Each structure stands twice: as C-alpha cells, then as structure tokens.
C-alpha cells in the first residue's frame, strides 16, 4: 500500500471521528476501506484510478471468501450458498467504498465515483428512471418464533443467571436493540413508574425515547439490583460481568450475542438472535392492534417504512384475519370459478 493511499485513508477516518460517528461505525469504515485498498494492492491496481470493473472484481473476491472473514488472497472457492457473503454485508462494503470515493472527489483527487448509486423511480417528488445498484437489495424476512418455539426458549432461559434473564426480558419488553440494551445505566431506570430512558447517544437514529416495561420484568430487575449491589455500589452501567477476568466490567454487545447464541442452541432454536426479541415485540404490538405510528415511536424508528420491514405477522395470523374480514367477499367474487359449465 502506497504512502499516499495510507495518508488519504487516515485523513478520511479522522474526518469520520471528527464528525462524531459512533466508534463502531468508524472501526467498520476503516476495516472496509483498508480491505479494499489491500485488494487493489494485491491486483496491482492504483486505488485512485479504480473503475467500475475494479469494484465488480472486489465483489467477486468477497463472495469467494468464507462468511466469517477470510483474508486477502483467499481465492479459488466456489460461489455456493454456504460460502457467499450475506447480501447486506456486500452492500455495506459498497457503501463504505462509495463514501471513501466521495471524499476523494471532494479533495479533487477524482472526478467520478466508480461505485454507481442505485435509485428508485422517484426522489423527493421528482420522477427519475429507476436504476439498480451493483448489488440487488434482498429483503429477507426475519425469523419470528412461534408460541411453542418461544416457550422452548423461555424454558431454556430458566437456568440462566438473573442478569441474563433480565436482559432477555428487557430486550423483548422494550424492543431494544443489542447496543441499546448493553448501554443501559442505572440512572436510565425508573422503577417507580416502570419506565426506561433510552439515551439518544446509544440509539441507531440518535433520537432518545422512553419506554415502559412489564411487572414481570420489574420483579426480575428488583432481584438483579440486589445482586448487582453485591458486585458494585457505584452508579453506571446496569449490566456487569461476574467473570473473574472482567469482574464488574460492563457487558459488551459481543458477550450478549454469545449468551443469546448459546441459549438458542440449548433450546434447539439456532435461529435465535439478539434482534429476535425486538422483532417479536413489534410483531406482537401489531397483533394486538397498535397503530403503525405508535409502533414506530416505540421502536425508535424515523420512518414507518422501517417499521413495516420489522413487522411480520405469521401465516396463521393472516389466515385468521382473512377468515374474519375478507373470506366472504373473496368467495362471492370467485364463486363463478366453482360453477360447472353446462
């Protein structure tokens, strides 16, 4: 990697920090752009002269790597379903590269961006020809556990420490993202009103909100606070580690992911993830008749369009709704199909 390339990457990363981007976001940007720079170096391509073909070759290279990582130089793998990088991960890598080339254009080092932008048919009311980006958007439905599957998860959770059970309950009760859950502090809890304040700096949208939690979760909280006081009486992060190596240190989002992963495997539900509780909560709110705008506020979404992506009623829910509201109308409209021609 040339010195000029390294200087420009450092300059762009420093700019992201100065703009107040989240540390995890900055770290992801740096990993992504340095990986692309290493690919260009391996192929003998000048990073500042890369064209669309270079981006396409990099996408092919990413698809040939194992999903869990891999290094530059890992070639020769067949592009099977098991080895291809996830669609969202590919698009995220493209976004990072596009933003880096936007920076180079602003610095006068390039006149064009080699990463084309996809766009819809209309933007801000103006009509445009719809164009597809280099990677098509796949909207896969998230896994929502059935009642039986959820009971299995809860049964498996009974042997978990009180801290993990409380985290599971709060993740569902308040539809919390993984980062929001792990960033909770003792001062964010109002036990008298059973309310939790989600601070703006911990959210994805940088917008704070206040959400309630159930009486069952309140009982778990009361027990856990007693255990936490035995660990530390200092105010601060709510969830603390009990391991000898990290005792009283805040629980990281990676630790919580491992806890949920282990719980899912033990329950025989390997699809269980840290976002499953959030999806299930928002879907349950839709099931009991909450308005879409109310659900969006509860979830902390800027747009109801985002909320619609999160809410997925099961086929059984839709069948019951269909039977209760539209079955007779549809039967009347299709009645002639069943008639025998004379």
Automatic annotation (TrEMBL):
Residues 140-323 form the Tyr recombinase domain. Residues 3-105 form the Core-binding (CB) domain. InterPro entries: CB, DNA_brk_join_enz, Integrase-like_cat_sf, Integrase_catalytic, Integrase_recombinase_N, Tyrosine_recombinase_XerCD. It holds the Pfam family Phage_integrase. Keywords: Chromosome partition, DNA integration, DNA recombination, DNA-binding. The keyword Ribonucleoprotein does not apply. This is Tyrosine-type recombinase/integrase. It comes from Paracoccus nototheniae. The lineage of its organism: Bacteria, Pseudomonadati, Pseudomonadota, Alphaproteobacteria, Rhodobacterales.
């Amino acid at each position: 990697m040339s010195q000029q390339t390294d200087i420009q990457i450092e300059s762009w990363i420093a700019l992201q920090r100065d703009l107040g981007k989240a540390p995890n976001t900055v770290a992801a940007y740096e990993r992504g752009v340095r990986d692309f720079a290493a690919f260009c170096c391996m192929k003998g391509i000048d990073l500042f002269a890369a064209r669309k073909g270079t981006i396409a070759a990099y996408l092919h290279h990413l698809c040939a790597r194992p999903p869990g990582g891999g290094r530059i130089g890992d070639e020769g793998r067949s592009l099977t379903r098991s080895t291809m990088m996830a669609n969202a991960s590919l698009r995220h890598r493209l976004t990072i590269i596009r933003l880096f080339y936007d920076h180079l254009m602003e610095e006068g080092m390039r006149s064009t961006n080699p990463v084309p932008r996809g766009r819809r048919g209309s933007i801000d009311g103006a009509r445009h020809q719809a164009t597809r980006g280099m990677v098509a958007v796949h909207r896969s439905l998230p896994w929502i556990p059935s009642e039986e599957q959820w009971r299995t998860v809860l049964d498996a959770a009974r042997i978990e420490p009180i801290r993990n059970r409380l985290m599971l309950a709060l993740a569902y009760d308040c539809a919390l993202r993984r980062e929001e859950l792990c960033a909770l502090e003792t001062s964010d809890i109002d036990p008298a009103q059973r309310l939790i304040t989600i601070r703006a700096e911990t959210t994805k949208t940088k917008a704070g909100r206040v959400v309630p939690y159930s009486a069952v979760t309140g009982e778990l909280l009361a027990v856990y606070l007693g255990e936490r006081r035995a660990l530390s009486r200092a105010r601060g992060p709510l969830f603390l580690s009990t391991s000898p190596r990290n005792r009283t240190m805040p629980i990281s989002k990676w630790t919580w992911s491992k806890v949920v992963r282990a719980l899912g495997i033990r329950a025989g539900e390997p699809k269980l993830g840290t976002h499953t509780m959030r999806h299930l909560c928002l879907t349950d709110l839709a099931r009991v008749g909450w308005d879409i705008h109310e659900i969006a506020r509860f979830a902390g979404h800027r747009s109801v369009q985002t909320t619609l992506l999160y809410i997925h009623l099961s086929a059984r829910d839709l069948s019951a709704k269909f039977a209760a509201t539209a079955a007779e109308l549809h039967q009347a409209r299709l009645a002639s199909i069943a008639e025998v021609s004379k």
